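Continued from yesterday's entry.
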Amino acid sequence: MGVNIQTIKDIRLYLAKELKGNFQDHEISALSNIIIKTVTGIKRLQNLALPEHHVTQIHARRIINICKELKSGKPIQYILGETSFYNCVIKLNEETLIPRPETEELVDLIIKKNRGFTGNILDVGTGSGCIAIALAVNLPGSSVTGTDISEGAIKIAEENSRLNNVSVSFLKADVFSSDHLTVAETDIIVSNPPYVRDLEKQFMNSNVLDFEPHTALFVPDSDPLVFYRAILEQAVKILVPKGKIYFEINEAFGLLMVDLLEFYKYSDISIVKDINGKARFIKGIKNV
């Protein structure tokens, strides 16, 4: 193998040496914790307390392979095939985006504003199912449905639902067709649709551009609100009067999104900033 990894301490030293120059020190430390926990099953506090704990050669070989993939730019979430989202374990594949911390904030907003909620929730463009599953776990009286155009995304979302022991219905549906009209009337619609303009690609990291599904990220510069309009069109028929809608949005289009929700007769519209102070979410109540 050419590398002598026998203990937890050896893993940390190996990763620190190999990943230097690719990541900052604090990132290497965080990656080491994730890799050790995932590969060996030893949790962070244990592995910090037991640096001399021995690891198997199978585990050592896997860690070396993970390190090679990290150096290629591949995100750790895709290498390991899973991530953590709002205390849920979410498996990923090449057809699903890596869930962002901002999207956890969206889930947190919905949960805090709807304690004890017992109605229907629809997550449009569910991807890995992370939003739908986190809401189902934390609003246990609700009935949650997730839709996506990708068959591969639906399959992984269903697996994630079973993994987190919640009942969520997942349906293959295209937001630009009448597919969603088969969904039962819903009380809350949530969506984190594609909202990054093509012109913004130049500012993005290569690990996102090279590995994450572009169809789940990007919209044309000429029509950046195309998905929001389509969802609001569906909501005309499936969102009940006084139903709520929650979107994650591009920070550049907060005011345009307010105009759009007003056009579709929503009231109590508010933009909510994320932890970085960016206009990241919008919510409203359907008037009719």
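--- second protein ---
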Amino acid sequence: MSVFSARVLTISILAAACGMTACSKPAPSASAQRASYYWSAARETYANGDYAKTADHLEHLLDAPNQYTALAVPWYLVLTSGMANGYMELADQYAAGAHVNKAKAAAFRTKAADYRTIASQWAMRFAQNSEKLKDIPLGPLPIAFPLPKGGAAQPPQLKQIAGGMELSPEDAEAAEVLTVQQAVLMAVCRGVGAPQNLAKAEEILAGDRAEVSRATFGNAVADALEAESALYARNRMDEPQKLAALRSRAEIARKEAARVGSARIIATVTPQNP
């Protein structure tokens, strides 16, 4: 065999070996692929304004540690707390309308009860996962999502409802969508340390690596838990055990917010806005 042929044969063998071993990247594990799927799905549904599905997708990322855990926890908590708050607001406005429109009081009370049931479902999901803050390393929390849809002002339909006006099905649906959007938006603002300040929140969330201090975010979670515990007061759902549970979780969140350390999160993915 000639020297040239020997060199060609050697190069071919090395190339083949490289392709089969070290030169090829290992395929992502099944769990990593699953996490990536839910992360992508959450980004898509959030951009479309489907917050219920976004929360469902994010919840899958809270089950076990993965490359998105530190990014999914803050997002999930502001989303579910906002959803709970939005439905609480709808319920309160319908309850107020029942006092004004005596002829339609029963229908208004039914709507209030229905919305409180939905609010409770979101409040429980929020409270049950609020302790996930402990799964995020000490240091600033990464925020990997932009401001959601909606405006800072309450939807005008809420004033009509509280005034006893019976809305058309289309207007009632719009009231629900807009109220939940506004509540989620305000929850995000509080979470990043810019309550009621849309411009400041947008500035904080600008760029690909937004972050907020653990104290700021943790205390916002605690405040939300305390506020939403009112859903279970005697004049609303009258469930003292759940009221006490949310207040207990609020205390835990405040303790978690007070933890300090120099550790910083090094995300395994580069968070990009949906």
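Confidence is low (pLDDT under 50) at residues 1-23, 263-274. The chain is about 65% helix and 0% strand. Will compare against the first tomorrow.
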